[in-house]
Design brief:
The complex is a heterodimer. Chain A is an all-alpha fold. Chain A is 77% helix and 1% strand. Helices cover 30% and strands 22% of the residues of chain B. Classes of the chains: A mainly alpha, B alpha+beta.
Chain lengths: 323, 526
């Protein structure tokens, strides 16, 4: 078991290094940060001075190595746009994104499983068919369009919910939360639906097909023959066996929700990490872009590592072949 | 039925009173201020934010004319042409209650000259600022400087004691990631006081009831809540839903939508920014064209023909939906040196242009690459696309390369483009500023944005002499002469003056500022 884990961790580090190299070599194509940092009155001397100060006059590989050396010590540099420590900005923005991700993941999981079970049990019902057709919207419409449509309906036309921002937040010192105020909760609804809709329809469709599969199994038939109630069969026996692959998908999708909150956050002006990243791209704020990309790749690598290890624990065959 | 109508009337009444009492300005625009330190970051949104809380010696009103702020009047000294004398306003207090005196002005100007200051270029002609008495200062420049006040309108005055007490005398080292007391706290003399600020999220200000000008200005707004909203559609939705009652950076395609909504109105004014194309006439051969061994743009007839091929009215109507003013010169109106006659020198004449092309030996045309930003000016890429079609009519095949501004502008300053779009604003309201950056031959610290390769030593000498010519009449004569050369040489192809649109609740009385710099103390409610 131990050699397997060590090998996986080693691979993870390799993936991180490669992501870093790709990210760093792409920054050159985003543009020249100096352009945004100095006004139109700048002189050639100012440009040279700033370039030297930021180390942008050095070749990209050297910049990368220097960056890594600093990053390992927890120093991610200074944002070109805000003039503050990147680590400080990321810590400040993380609660907004994590809260949004948690709420939309809960929404996606709860509603996804409930609707999935419902459409599987009432396979031919009118409502179930309607839900199945409607769920195509969730899969096919791009996130920004869903966001704009929700804003149009609930903010502009009905005036029920705010169209942007996070509302009033309560500062707990190490964490800011919008869950404790009315305006904060109201502000969460539309972004959470927008962000979670795709995952919800995905989970729903997965649960439905898995459930249909399970309901055809022999043991369900025997259960019926024994005269067990529908409720017991559906929820105690069938659902349990449906959940195994679903849980794997949920785990992986959680990472995707955090990473791809970018579009939702831009549409709703949600002050989280995704919006920070978009701002950074437009301003060519290299330290922020680098830190964000590294953070997201660490997150995915860790999730995959955990999943791999769990698989190995669950399935002895994987362990055997790897040692 | 009666009951229902009564109910409707009551709700209508309720909602209308809600609008009338809109003393809170809920203000949104695309970006946020980068810092609150008055002498860091010489940049639009940062200045706008600071102007609510801090004040310079004088400001510009919405027509571009000077208006006294902390100075009541100013004039060049009668004894020494290198000295300006400013009389300061008496009885002005900072937000913490301290008196504003000459000592604070001297201190603030010295602070603005520090190496980390972003304002130092604006005042690099200043040698010394000295206090004559508590309410008079003299500014000594390195030579006669007839337009000195034009450079002072964004130079905020801080309280010396407050700044020293809070250990924030040094301007923040922005690139070094320094956070100082002054980057997050303010103590100005302005009409509004800072309540709270979360960068990129929300800034709240409240009215300064001890403001010196509280009886002179409307100052009907008691609270300001400023939120940057980046996505244009969300910005407009926030206005339509009533969450925001004052909006800058209005997307052109939504103007009608907002204007047609109940209780909302869009106000428009020409902006201090002109959009134009530059052409590299200086090179012997161009890289971005298909003509070998020659530079078609070096021939003034080709440059004239290209300008004549551009149908500015069509761009105004189709691309800009009416939201622009066709331009014939690269100076915004209200800049000293601008004339209506020169701004009209832009007639479209495709046949004449073809004849000129033939005369220049390019009757068959040529092809060239046009470099264009796609995220800097209003509809920048669409304007370039329109120009591609128009230039095609006279045989100039244009390959458009539209890229983000962060990649586009280095091409101009590095001389890596032969045909490019550029926009220019004139913060000093004087033509000298345009000449220094766009007409003077390119050197290290002058002509930095002149990507045309145009370099005329006589003209350069004339441009340099403008800086110290105190005979304003002769100076204006020189400015007119320089413009004549720029026009005759067709140094640039002017396209249009951008127009500013501000969306607001009908209950707000706001005049659009050509610098896109609202000052809330002028806002009234009715």
């Amino acid at each position: 078991m131990l050699p397997f884990i060590i090998k996986r961790i080693g691979q993870s580090f390799l993936v991180l290094l490669i992501t870093g190299v790709i990210a760093f070599s792409m920054f050159r194509f985003v543009g020249d940060p100096i352009e945004n940092m100095l006004g139109q009155e700048r002189t050639a001397e100012d440009v040279e001075r700033l370039r030297g100060q930021l180390g942008l006059d050095q070749p990209v590989p050297i910049q990368y190595v220097k960056y890594l050396a600093e990053a390992i010590q927890g120093n991610f540099g200074v944002s070109y746009r805000q003039g503050r420590e990147v680590s400080e900005i990321i810590l400040e923005r993380a609660p907004a994104t994590l809260e949004l991700a948690a709420v939309s993941a809960t929404f996606a999981v709860v509603l996804g499983i409930a609707l999935g079970v419902f459409t599987a049990i009432r396979r031919d019902g009118f409502l179930a068919n309607f839900i199945m057709s409607a769920s195509l919207i969730g899969v096919s419409l791009p996130t920004f369009l869903i966001g704009i449509l929700l804003i149009y309906l609930f903010s502009v036309e009905l005036n029920w919910l705010p169209s942007f921002g996070r509302g009033e937040v309560v500062d707990l010192g190490w964490w800011t939360t919008g869950l404790l105020t009315e305006s904060g909760l109201k502000a969460l609804i539309l972004p959470a639906i927008t962000l979670g809709l795709y995952q919800m329809t995905l989970i729903m469709r997965l649960v439905r097909s898995e459930m249909l599969e399970v309901l055809r199994q022999d043991y369900i038939r025997f259960a019926r023959a024994r005269g067990l109630s529908d409720k017991t069969i559906n929820f105690r026996h069938a659902l349990k066996n449906t959940m195994v692959p679903v849980i794997t998908i949920i785990g992986l999708q959680l990472g995707a929700i955090i990473a791809f909150a970018i579009i939702t956050e831009t549409v709703f002006q949600w002050p989280g990490l995704g919006l920070l990243f978009i701002n950074a791209i437009q301003f060519v704020d290299v330290p922020v872009m680098a830190a964000y990309l590294m953070m997201i790749s660490v997150m995915f690598v860790v999730i995959n590592l955990v999943v791999d290890i769990l698989y190995a624990l669950v399935d002895p065959r994987l362990r055997a072949s790897s040692t | 039925m009666k009951k229902v109508t009564g109910l409707l009337a009551v709700t209508a009444l309720l909602s209308s009173t809600a609008i009338v009492n809109a003393e809170t300005l809920r203000w949104a625009r695309a970006g946020d201020a980068l810092t609150l330190d008055p002498h860091s970051q010489n940049e639009g949104p940062s200045h706008t934010m600071r102007h609510q809380m801090y004040e310079p010696l004088m400001i510009r009103d919405t027509t571009g004319a000077f208006e006294p702020a902390l100075a009541t009047d100013w004039a060049p000294s009668a004894d020494d042409p290198n000295v300006w004398v400013f009389n300061l306003r008496q009885g002005v207090k900072f937000h913490d209650g301290a008196d504003m005196t000459a000592e604070d002005v001297v201190f603030s100007y010295e602070r603005a000259k520090q190496p980390t200051s972003d304002m130092k270029e604006l005042i690099n002609s200043i040698v010394e600022v000295r206090a004559v008495d508590d309410y008079t200062i003299e500014i000594v420049t390195d030579g006669p400087n007839p337009i000195l006040p034009a450079n002072l309108t964004d130079l905020m005055i801080m309280d010396k004691d407050w700044t020293e007490a809070n250990n924030t005398v040094n301007v923040q080292d922005f690139e070094g990631g320094e956070i100082t007391y002054a980057t997050t706290n303010t103590n100005g003399t302005g009409a509004y006081k800072l309540v709270s600020r979360e960068p990129d999220v929300k800034t709240v200000m409240t009215r300064n009831d001890d403001y010196w000008g509280i009886d002179q200005f409307p100052m009907d707004i008691t609270e300001i809540i400023y939120t940057p909203i980046q996505n244009p559609a969300t910005r407009v939705a926030a206005m339509l839903s009533g969450e925001v009652n004052f909006l800058q950076d209005m997307p052109v395609q939504d103007l009608a939508r907002v204007n047609d909504s109940d209780g909302l109105v869009v106000k428009t004014a020409p902006q201090n920014r002109v959009i134009f194309f530059g052409m590299n006439q200086g090179a012997d051969d161009l890289e971005a064209d298909n003509v070998d061994g020659a530079n078609p743009l070096a021939d003034v007839r080709v440059r004239k023909a290209m300008s004549m091929a551009i149908n500015r009215d069509a761009i105004q109507q189709v691309v800009m939906r009416g939201q622009s003013q066709p331009a014939g010169m690269i100076a915004p109106p209200f800049v000293n040196g601008w004339t209506a006659e020169m701004d009209a020198e832009s007639a479209t004449d495709v046949e004449g242009a073809k004849a000129l092309m033939a005369e220049a030996g390019y009757g068959e045309g040529f092809s060239i690459r046009l470099d264009c930003p796609n995220d800097r000016y209003i509809n920048d890429e669409a304007i370039c696309q329109a120009a591609v079609g128009m230039l095609g009519q006279i045989g100039v095949t244009v390959n458009l390369d539209a890229i983000p501004k962060a990649q586009h502008f280095p091409k101009i300053t590095d001389g890596a483009t032969d045909f490019y779009m550029l926009g220019w604003g004139v913060p000093t309201y004087d033509s000298e500023y345009i000449f220094n950056f766009l007409v003077h031959g390119r050197e290290d610290d002058i002509g930095t944005w002149n990507g045309t390769g145009f370099d005329n030593d006589d003209l350069d000498a004339k441009i340099i002499s403008l800086a110290s010519n105190t005979d304003l009449e002769a100076r204006n004569g020189d400015i007119a002469d320089i413009w004549r050369v720029v026009q005759d040489e067709q140094l640039y192809i002017p396209i249009h003056h951008q127009v500013l649109n501000w969306g607001m609740s009908e209950s707000l009385g706001i005049d659009v500022d050509p610098e896109d710099q609202p000052m809330v103390k002028y806002f009234s409610t009715n």
